[in-house]
């Protein structure tokens, strides 16, 4: 599996908790008791609550909506079985995560294992590259209550990693795009393919644990690569192909953004907020189990594994319009994902703050770009 989780003393506890959480989630008593109806809001007549509409009907809608076709009847029948299991899973997620909406997504015909293998791609390890700093502790007393880098022009359009475990490269470019915007005043979309093809940065203390294209990687090592390579090219000059079978076509003369330094942010939520406000969007890791069925709203599951398997971009935080009984006054992080604009809320995910939900506070990095004059 590409998202192998190594045991480190610090994270060992997480693993234990994660294992417990996973089995609890899968055999949840909660969900058996009462199944709150899925509030599927997309796709017009696509109402999962209508008892007259069976799984067959939803599968037909799903295939039409996402342009799915299967090679054989056998494959079709298998996918329908998986789809039905995912409908049940979405209902379970809905009862565990009532402030979000869970239902049919483009991933509804994939088993959880296929989903993890194909659409995530975070290699979880904690050893930091030699050039990683610890982010200085910032003052937190005058932070705004709501903050969103999208309103300030620091976030490029949502991209799509496709069927390739390259999430780490999108998280990396997103953070550097923001940092480069802060350093130069210009928003330039950067090349993930350069990272997928050229970045094979390894963990010095864990042989064989290296950034490896569609098989996974880590944002901190990608920052390390970018620092050593000199920078990243423009998206248009080195476009994304979604495969890692090509050779490295990096052209040093076409660098448009460079890393000055990068730092690891402490686990403290206020420090994370202070860092996003001061330094721009942050590269963060998360457990993506609820994201396979996420349709919208603020995700705040009662229980979620902290086993990190996905790299995303934290672009801000908010609180407006969110007050479920159990998390009153709590705000959420705004997360940019790399599964296209048709996933989630126009490509974005909201996850509640306060309890390191799904491990979102566990691996947070900030990058600073070199201030250039010749852009
Ligand atoms: C990182 O680089 C930025 C921009 O050059 C600089 O202002 C900052 O002090 C540096 N941070 C560290 C931790 O070296």
UniProtKB/TrEMBL annotation:
Keyword Protein transport: no
One GO molecular-function entry: cysteine-type peptidase activity
Keyword Amino-acid biosynthesis: no
Superkingdom as given in the UniProt entry: Eukaryota
GO cellular component: lytic vacuole
Pfam families xref list: Inhibitor_I29, Peptidase_C1
Domain (Cathepsin propeptide inhibitor) ranges: 59-115
Secretion signal span: 1-20
Domain Peptidase C1A papain C-terminal: 143-368
InterPro entries: Papain-like_cys_pep_sf, Pept_asp_AS, Pept_cys_AS, Pept_his_AS, Peptidase_C1A, Peptidase_C1A_C, Peptidase_C1A_papain-like, Prot_inhib_I29
SMART domains: Inhibitor_I29, Pept_C1
UniProt cross-references to Gene3D superfamilies, sorted A to Z: Cysteine proteinases
Gene Ontology process terms (BP): proteolysis
Entry keyword set: Disulfide bond, Glycoprotein, Hydrolase, Protease, Signal, Thiol protease, Zymogen
Family: Belongs to the peptidase C1 family.
Protein's name in the database: Cysteine proteinase RD19a
Species of origin: Morella rubra (Chinese bayberry)
């Amino acid at each position: 599996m590409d998202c192998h989780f190594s045991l480190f003393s610090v994270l060992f506890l997480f693993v234990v908790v994660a294992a417990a959480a996973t089995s609890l989630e899968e055999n949840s008593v909660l969900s058996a008791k009462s199944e709150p109806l899925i509030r599927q809001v997309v796709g017009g007549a696509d109402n999962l609550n209508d008892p007259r509409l069976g799984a067959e009907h939803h599968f037909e809608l799903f295939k039409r909506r996402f342009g799915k076709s299967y090679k054989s009847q056998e494959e079709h029948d298998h996918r329908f079985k998986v789809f039905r299991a995912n409908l049940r899973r979405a209902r379970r997620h809905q009862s565990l995560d009532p402030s979000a909406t869970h239902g049919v997504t483009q991933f509804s015909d994939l088993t959880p294992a296929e989903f993890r293998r194909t659409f995530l791609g975070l290699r979880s390890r904690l050893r930091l590259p030699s050039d990683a700093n610890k982010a200085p502790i910032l003052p937190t007393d005058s932070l705004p209550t709501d903050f969103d880098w999208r309103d300030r022009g620091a976030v490029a359009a949502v991209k799509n990693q496709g069927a390739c475990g390259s999430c780490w490269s999108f998280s990396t470019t997103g953070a550097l795009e923001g940092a480069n915007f802060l350093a130069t005043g210009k928003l330039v979309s950067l090349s993930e393919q350069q990272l997928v093809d050229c970045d094979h940065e390894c963990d010095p203390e864990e042989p064989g644990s290296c950034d490896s294209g569609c098989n996974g990687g880590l944002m901190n090592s990608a920052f390390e690569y970018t620092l050593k390579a000199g920078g990243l090219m423009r998206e248009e000059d080195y476009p994304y192909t979604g495969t890692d079978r090509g050779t490295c076509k990096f052209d040093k003369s076409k660098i448009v953004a460079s890393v000055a330094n990068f730092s690891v942010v402490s686990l403290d939520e206020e420090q994370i907020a202070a860092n996003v406000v001061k330094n721009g969007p942050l590269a963060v890791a998360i457990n993506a189990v609820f994201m396979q069925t996420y349709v919208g709203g603020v995700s705040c599951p009662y229980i979620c594994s902290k086993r990190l398997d996905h790299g995303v971009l934290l672009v801000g935080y908010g609180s407006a319009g969110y007050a479920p009984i159990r998390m009153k006054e709590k705000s959420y992080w705004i997360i940019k994902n790399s599964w296209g604009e048709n996933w989630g809320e126009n490509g974005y995910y909201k996850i509640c703050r306060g309890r390191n939900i799904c491990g979102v506070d566990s691996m947070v990095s900030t990058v600073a770009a070199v201030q250039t004059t010749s852009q």
